[in-house]
Amino acid sequence: MQHIQKILNAILSKKVFEYLVVDKHFVIEKSSMGLFKYLENAPMPQESVFEHFPELVGYEDRILEVMRGETPYFKLQTIKKGEYWFDIYVDRYEEDRVLLLLHNVTAFTVTQHRLLQYSNEQTLVRSTLEQIIENNQMICVIDQNNVIAFANESFRNYFDLDTGDTLSTKVLQLNEYVDIDDFYFKALHHGALINVKKQYFEVEAKPIDALYRLFLFKDITAVYTRTAALEKALRFDTLTGLLSRRAFEESVITLIAEKRSFLFCVLDLDDFKKINDTYGHNRGDSTLREFGSFCRYFFGEGVMMGRWGGEEFLMVIERSRVEDAIKTVDDFRKRLATHPFEENIVVTVSIGATWCNQNDSFEELFLRADKAMYRAKTEGKNRIVLDAPIPTLECS
C-alpha cells in the first residue's frame, strides 16, 4: 500500500494526473485534492463515481473484471470536464478496488483540435480553389498601385497580362468607370457586369489586406445571352417587333412620373378581319409583321409604339405642342395608306389620341384614347380623332 501511494505521489507531482479509488459497489473511497480544480463539484468519499463521471456508465463489467484481476487495465479516451480534457485509466488497486487515473491532456487535445480545424480550413481552401478552377473562374490580385501581384492562368491567357503588369480600365474595357478604384468599389459592394471580347463576366472583389485586392471573374456569357433573349422576348412582341403590352405600359408610366409632355394614341387597323377571311390567318400575320416593320422604318427611335393585342396598337409621341404631335401621327397615317403591302393589300388605320395631363394615369389615357379611336371608326375610319377640341383630321 505504501509503495502504491509513493507511486501516486510521484505521478501527482507532475501535475498532469489526478486519481480516485473506487470499490466494487462503484462508491468513491478517496480522491486527490487536485480534482477540486477541475470539477465544479469535486468527488467526496461515499459518493457514487457515476455521479461525477457518467462517462463510465456502460463500463461496469469491465471495471469489475479489472478489480478481480481478470483483465489488465483499460483506457477511456477522451472526456471533457468544463474547460479540461482527460484520459481515464482504470487499473487494479487491490482486491475489490480499482484506481482511476485521470490524465490531463488538455494542452495536447486543444492543440490537436486546432490542427484539425486548420486542416479543415485548408481543405476548404483547397476545395474552393478547385471549384474556381473547375468553373474556369479567372483570378487577379492587385496591389495599391493596381499592379498585378498574382493572376491565374485563365486570367493571364484571356487578358494577355502577367505579374508585374498594370490592371487598367482600358484593358478591361471599362468605359463606364472612372478608374480601377471605382470599378473595385462597385464589384466589392454590388458585383459588376463587364463585357470584354464579346464575353460577359460577373466580377466580385474582396480585400485581402490593406495592400492587396482580389478580383474574381466568372464567365456568364451563356447565362447572360439566355437572359437577354428572355428579356427581349418579354419586352418585344414576337410578331411585329414592336414593344410588348407590358413593356409599353411600364414605359408610359415612367413618362408620366417624369411629367413629360406627350400624345397618347390607340390605333386599330381598319377591316383587318377581311384580310384574315380573304387571304387566311397566315397572310394576316404577315400583314401584321409588315406593319411592324413599316412603323419602325417610318419612326425610327423617335416614337414609341407597342402592340396591345390583335390588330390594336399604342403610340406615344413626345412633343412640346399637341399640334406638332398630331401632324406627325397624320403623316404616318397618310404614308401607311399608300404603302404597298403583299397581295396589294391596302392597310389603313383609325387613331384615337389624347394629350397627357399632369395628373393622368395610364388607365385614364388609354380610356380617353380608346373612346376617341371608336369615334374614328364610326366616323368613317382612316382618320385621327382627338378627345380635345382640335379639328378631326380625315383621310386625304
Helix content: 40-55%
CATH class of the largest domain: Alpha Beta
- N-end to C-end Cα span: 129 Å
Share of β-strand residues:
25-35%
Query: The CATH topology of the largest domain is what?
Result: Alpha-Beta Plaits
The total strand number stands at 15
Secondary structural class: alpha+beta
The assigned CATH architecture of the largest domain is 2-Layer Sandwich
Unreliable stretches (pLDDT < 50, length at least 5) are: 1-7, 10-14, 391-396
| Rg on CA atoms, Å | 43 Å
What do the pLDDT scores average to?
Answer: 83
The largest pleated sheet is described as: 5 strands, antiparallel
- Total of DSSP H or I helical runs spanning 4+ residues: 13
Categorize the overall geometry.
elongated
- Structural domain tally: 3
**Sheet with most strands: strand arrangement:** 2-1-5-4-3
List the helices and strands in order: HEEHHHEEEHEEHHEEEHHEHHEEHEHE
Can you describe this structure in just a few lines?
The protein is α+β, with helices and mostly antiparallel strands.
Please, could you describe this protein's structure?
The protein is of the alpha+beta class and 396 residues long. The chain has three domains: 108 residues, PAS domain (Beta-Lactamase); 89 residues, 2-Layer Sandwich (Beta-Lactamase), CATH 3.30.450.20; 151 residues, Reverse transcriptase/Diguanylate cyclase domain (Alpha-Beta Plaits, 2-Layer Sandwich), CATH 3.30.70.270. The chain contains 13 helices and 15 strands. Helix 10 packs across helix 11.
